[in-house]
Structure formats: structure tokens, C-alpha cells
């Protein structure tokens, strides 16, 4: 029987861990059980997943109880999920997987990232049915007393030429100052703090929103439990979500982060990028808003 120490020194299931019959040879048998009708990409993904999961189990010498605790965590995430809540995604978020996959997807899709607005994770609170609103209107329907209102405006342009992109959709969504998105909170009207805006002929969009505030990710499910077990805090830094879509261009999903927020360096879901930090400036002469933010977005042509 190979010792745990030996196994740790021999990752990838290679070499001397085969003598108990459950090393590289066993893993190969499982991988090779896939039939000829498996698509090449699924074969690639599943082969790697099986190899890494087997290596992980061998490396940590996973016990039956520990494996079952993991199975129950995944089951609980599924049972909690519905159209308003995606606990499986949240579990991936707290271990950095959505951020990593976003980075891989964004890098693979763009030859040069110079000047291109960086992407960030979608997160679990996007809705597919957000209403279209007029430029210059507000997404806040019952502005909380402790909120600061921001006039946010900017242009969407082609990253290579700077040409404005008319008729692009700029979708924004944010949590309220109580830390909740409208679908988590019966006190907020439906679609509060979210809206879709269309750019005009100059590529411009504008809206009133709230200065974002930090909020905790939901703690009442397996993701919150896992954060607690790992002795980690639950806060996301203050941010606003964007999804920008223009004909013939790569769609962008991103977030902007208030550079004054104390959680920037340790986002509970690892989504902050330096390029996405913004400064809210004082705004004079507008009774609707005390702050202003100009945020311009550059998109790359679809290949
Ligand atoms: C969010 O920003 O809405 C979010 C992202 C990941 C996990 C939880 C919330
Ligand atoms: Fe968010």
C-alpha cells in the first residue's frame, strides 16, 4: 500500500501508486469507459475532470465521510436553487471558479485586451427579463434614506476605432443599501435597481442609480456554511453590474467597483480587477443626484 506522503509526491496518478489497483491504471479505466459517440470536447473535459478528481481524492486521502459531506453540500445547493437563487453558482463563486472561468473565456475571446473594457463575473442575481428604460431615467423606485444617488453616463465604442456604437444595450443591476437585490427582498418593487438602456446615435447612455454599498453573499446555504468553515468573511465590495450587447461585437459582462470600498482587496468571490475600479465624483446643480460617474465602455468586434 502506498503512503499518503508518497502519493502527494506523485501527482497526476503517475507511477508508484498503482500497486493497490486504484492509481493511474484505475483512472485510465474510468476515462476509457467513455464510448465512441462522446463528442471530442466532452471527452476532453470529462477525461481531465476524472483525472483531477481522482488525483485530488488520492492526494488528500479522502475518506468516505468527507466525500459524503461533499455530496450533501452539492445536494443542498441544488435543493436551494430556483429561478431567484443559484446556490450552485454561489458555491463556485466562493472558491473562485466563476472568476477563473470568466478570465479564461475573456482571454480566449480577445486577441489584444488593450483598451478593451475588462470582464467580470455575472453572479447569481442577473435577470433575463429586465425592462428597457429611457436614458436619463432612474433605476431606483424607492430610494432608501441612507442612499447616495449617482448620475451615471458614458459611451459605448469600438475599441479599435473609437467609433460610437448606437443601439447597443447597456443593462445594469445593483443591490440596495440593505445588501439585497430586489428578488431577495419583498420590500422592493419588482425590477427595482435594474434596467436596460439603449445607446443613442453618439453611443451614449445615462441613468440615475445608487452609489453601491458592500453586501454579504447569502449565508443561509452551503456556500455561506463553507465560507464559515474556511474562516472567511462574506462581503462583496461595493459594485454595479453591467451587461453590454451590440450587434457585431462581443458581448461584455462586467462590474465596476467603488475604489473607496474597504473590501476591494478581499472580495469574497474574487471578482475585482484594477481596471474596473471607479471614483464617484461630487455632482453640482442636480437636485436628483449628489454624485456623478462617467463610465465609458469599449467593445471588440466579434470574430
Ligand atoms: C453578485 O455580485 O451579485 C454576486 C456574485 C457572486 C456571488 C454572489 C453575489
Ligand atoms: Fe452583485
From TrEMBL:
Record carries keyword Membrane: no
SUPFAM superfamilies linked to this entry: Aromatic compound dioxygenase
Source organism superkingdom: Eukaryota
Span of domain Catechol dioxygenase N-terminal: 40-111
Keywords (A to Z) from UniProt: Dioxygenase, Iron, Metal-binding, Oxidoreductase
Enzyme Commission number, as recorded: 1.13.11.1
InterPro entries: 1_2-HQD/HQD (IPR039390), Catechol_dOase_N (IPR007535), Intradiol_dOase_C (IPR000627), Intradiol_dOase_core (IPR015889), Intradiol_RC_Dioxygenase (IPR050770)
Record PANTHER family: DIOXYGENASE, PUTATIVE (AFU_ORTHOLOGUE AFUA_2G02910)-RELATED, INTRADIOL RING-CLEAVAGE DIOXYGENASES DOMAIN-CONTAINING PROTEIN-RELATED
Name this protein carries in UniProt: Catechol 1,2-dioxygenase
Organism of this sequence: Purpureocillium takamizusanense
Amino acid at each position: 500500500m502506498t503512503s499518503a506522503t508518497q502519493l502527494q509526491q506523485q501527482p497526476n496518478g503517475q507511477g508508484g501508486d498503482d500497486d493497490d489497483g486504484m492509481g493511474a491504471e484505475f483512472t485510465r479505466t474510468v476515462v476509457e469507459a467513455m464510448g465512441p459517440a462522446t463528442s471530442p470536447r466532452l471527452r476532453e473535459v470529462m477525461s481531465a475532470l476524472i483525472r483531477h478528481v481522482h488525483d485530488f481524492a488520492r492526494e488528500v486521502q479522502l475518506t468516505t465521510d468527507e466525500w459524503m459531506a461533499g455530496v450533501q453540500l452539492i445536494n443542498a445547493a441544488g435543493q436551494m436553487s430556483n429561478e431567484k437563487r443559484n446556490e450552485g453558482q454561489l458555491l463556485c463563486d466562493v472558491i473562485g471558479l466563476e472568476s477563473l472561468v470568466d478570465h479564461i473565456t475573456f482571454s480566449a475571446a480577445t486577441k489584444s485586451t488593450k483598451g478593451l473594457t475588462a470582464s467580470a463575473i455575472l453572479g447569481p442575481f442577473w435577470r433575463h427579463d429586465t425592462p428597457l428604460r429611457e436614458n436619463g431615467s432612474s433605476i431606483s423606485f424607492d430610494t432608501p434614506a441612507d442612499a447616495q444617488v449617482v448620475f451615471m453616463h458614458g459611451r459605448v465604442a469600438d475599441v479599435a476605432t473609437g467609433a460610437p456604437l448606437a443601439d447597443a444595450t447597456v443593462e445594469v443591476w445593483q443591490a440596495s443599501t440593505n445588501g439585497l437585490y430586489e428578488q431577495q427582498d419583498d420590500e422592493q418593487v419588482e425590477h427595482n435597481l435594474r434596467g436596460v438602456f439603449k445607446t443613442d446615435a453618439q453611443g451614449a447612455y445615462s441613468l440615475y442609480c445608487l452609489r453601491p454599498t458592500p453586501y454579504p453573499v447569502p449565508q443561509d446555504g452551503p456556500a455561506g456554511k463553507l465560507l464559515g468553515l474556511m474562516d472567511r468573511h462574506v462581503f462583496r465590495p461595493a459594485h454595479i453590474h453591467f451587461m453590454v450587447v451590440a450587434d457585431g461585437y462581443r458581448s461584455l459582462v462586467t462590474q465596476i467597483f467603488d475604489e473607496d470600498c474597504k473590501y476591494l482587496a478581499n472580495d469574497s468571490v474574487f471578482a475585482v480587477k484594477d481596471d474596473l475600479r471607479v471614483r464617484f465624483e461630487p455632482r453640482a446643480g442636480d437636485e436628483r443626484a449628489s454624485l456623478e460617474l462617467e463610465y465609458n465602455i469599449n467593445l471588440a468586434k466579434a470574430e
